[in-house]
Amino acid sequence: MPVPWEALIPFALVTTMFGAAGTLLNTSKRLQNQGKPIRYNVDAWDDMMMDRDQRLTGHKRGQSTDPIAPEEFETNSAWYTERAS
Description:
Elements (H helix, E strand, L loop, with lengths): L7 H25 L11 H14 L28
């Protein structure tokens, strides 16, 4: 059975576009996470630790090696205040 060679060009284009889209999406997500893999199954503890890391370093995926927190860490608490009616 002969192969329709003219059908291979669109097939190659579609395959290349799917590969390029997946690679660009993966690269974009890694760049947003400072080169670290994407997080899956984030529970309450991980969410709390990411909030703490954001307050310490300014980025959700950033981590600090300083044993003492900066001065502004005391005033940017994770506890949000409620309005008294």
